[in-house]
Amino acid sequence: DAGVQRDRAVSAQEWLHKWAEGKTGFHQEQGHPLLRKYLDVLLNGRSGLRIFFPLCGKAVEMKWLADMGHHVVGVEISEQALREFFSEQGLPYREEPVPGIPGAKVLQSTSGNISLYCCSIYDLSSAVVGKFDGVWDRGALVAVNPCDRQRYASLMISLMEKNSSYLLVTVLYDPNKHKGPPFYVPESEIRSLFG
């Protein structure tokens, strides 16, 4: 029963603390094997796509997809995570404020094919970041507070082009035994959120 987690909430400060303390067991140094396995579903034979990484952290897959010729856009509240991404990947970048979002900044690779926004995901809109051909949601929906899932799903849908692909990874477990995150999101709720 996913209802036991319904009122559970993790604050932005708690997420920032996890990054500061190195409590990022969710980060995968080698990338997620399911992206490699289902890459054809995400790309659907297309090249030069705009691919969105919600709550991207320092996901190594961002460079991997950019190296394939795709334009990658991510969003993450932790500036530390974004700086670590560019440093660990050996990528030079520039930093600029984001017009219309106080305190937000975008870190962009000097090659221009990776743009990472440092702000709340809910500050973004298609007016700011455009629309995407694909979304790699490897740990965002399961990290979003349960009370914010509808808001999150509505935002994701608003950022997607008509023929975009949404690749989603969730986790299955007994929510009575773990308070989350990652939060348990039953398949029925995924269908309700995304159709």
If you had to describe this structure to a student in words, what would you say it looks like?
- It catalyses: S-adenosyl-L-methionine + a thiopurine = S-adenosyl-L-homocysteine + a thiopurine S-methylether.
- One of its GO terms (biological process) is methylation.
- The protein is 30% helix and 21% strand.
- The longest helix is centred in the first third of the chain and has 10 residues, at 12-21.
- It has a single domain, classed as Vaccinia Virus protein VP39 (Rossmann fold).
- It has helices at residues 12-21, 33-37, 39-43, 61-67, 79-88, 126-129, 149-158, 187-194, and strands at 50-53, 71-76, 93-97, 105-109, 114-118, 132-137, 160-168.
User: What's the overall average pLDDT, rounded?
Assistant: 93
CATH superfamily: Vaccinia Virus protein VP39
Overall number of strands: 7
- Give me the number of helical elements: 8
Low-confidence stretches: none
Provide the CATH topology. Rossmann fold
Content-based structural category: alpha/beta
Radius of gyration over alpha carbons? Answer: 16 Å
Strand content: 15-25%
CATH architecture: 3-Layer(aba) Sandwich
Helix and strand run: HHHEHEHEEEHEHEH
Shape: globular
CATH class: Alpha Beta
What is the topology, as strand order, of the major beta sheet? 3-4-5-2-1-6-7
EC number: 2.1.1.67
Binding site for S-adenosyl-L-methionine: 15-26, 55, 76, 120-121, 138
Protein name: thiopurine S-methyltransferase
Family: Belongs to the class I-like SAM-binding methyltransferase superfamily. TPMT family.
